[in-house]
Amino acid sequence: MLAYYAVAAREAFWTEHWGGHSVAEQLAVARRSPLTTLITEALPTAGPILEAGCGLGQYVLLLRERGWRVAGVDWSLEALAACRRVAPAPLGVMELRALAVRDGALAGYISLGVVEHDAGGPDAILAEARRVLAPGGVLLVSVPYVNGARRLGAPWIRRRNRALARRGGEFYQYAFSRAEITATLARHGFSVRSAHPYDPARLLRQALRRVFRWRSRAAGGGTGSGGSVVSGERVRAVPGREERRRSTLAAAARRLLYTEAALRVLGHMLLVVARKA
């Protein structure tokens, strides 16, 4: 596993994080995300489902719209309240290591980008997930993925994060290889059925932001405006043509990024589908 240090992902962190987003925004993202297809194809068609660590509840709302019996829990009361203001849904504040759910009550359990933030590892949360799932129940868990790019950069990532820890940085999250998360789930009695990398553009966006910040500093801040300047006159693109060009390029980039090879190299997260033995 790769350990990352920055700001500890405690309750106050998530309250602040979700406070910078809206339920409508997150719901719109979920509606068009390839992750949603992976989730809906893997979930059981009948029985209660729990999303543990649901944040603003966009997947609780979306899945309920589509006919699933889904409830959500989180430790940010503010995030849950924001979700409730958009639509009624069964939500509750709970500690994921000790859920107020009876043994074997659930047909499905969803955890998207949650278990990696426990400094002690994901075991306590996964043990509780196993307790509340019925035999044969489906677990969907996503974690940061040690993809090809991270594997190559692992020595640098470890050195950088050790330095951050020495300077007072707190544990933020772990990233897992397929083998590591598969072995972890097997330790808790789960049989992995499939694993899907997703969000391949995240690393590219981060790299591009660093490049643009460096270029901006090197150029003394740039022109500070959109568009280019030639001979003192601004050159404006024709809006319709420019919009079509960007749309075509975006579609081509999306197709390329979602090939199996690109996902293995650049996929930021890994969604694992497993069953309770």
Describe this structure in words.
There is one protein chain. With 277 residues, the protein is an alpha/beta fold. The chain folds into two domains: 2-200 and 258-276, Vaccinia Virus protein VP39 (Rossmann fold, 3-Layer(aba) Sandwich), CATH 3.40.50; 207-251, no CATH class. Helices cover 46% and strands 24% of the residues. The protein has twelve helices and eleven strands. The chain has a seven-stranded mixed beta sheet, sandwiched between helices. Helix 2 packs across helix 4. The longest helix is centred in the last third of the chain and has 19 residues, at 239-257. The protein is globular. Mean pLDDT is 87; it is low at 221-237.
Alpha-beta classification: alpha/beta
| Average residue pLDDT | 87
Shape: globular
Report the biggest beta sheet as strand number plus sense, adding barrel if it closes. Answer: 7 strands, mixed
CATH architecture of the largest domain: 3-Layer(aba) Sandwich
**Spatial order of the strands forming the largest sheet:** 4-3-2-5-6-11-8
Beta-strand percent range: 15-25%
CATH superfamily of the largest domain: Vaccinia Virus protein VP39
Number of strands: 11
Can you write the helix and strand succession as a string?
A: EHHHEHEHEEHEHHEHEHEEHHE
CATH fold field value of the largest domain = Rossmann fold
Nearest-angstrom radius of gyration? 21 Å
Helix content: 40-55%
Q: pLDDT under 50 segments (min length 5)? A: 221-237
Number of domains: 2
N- to C-terminal separation? 25 Å
CATH first level of the largest domain: Alpha Beta
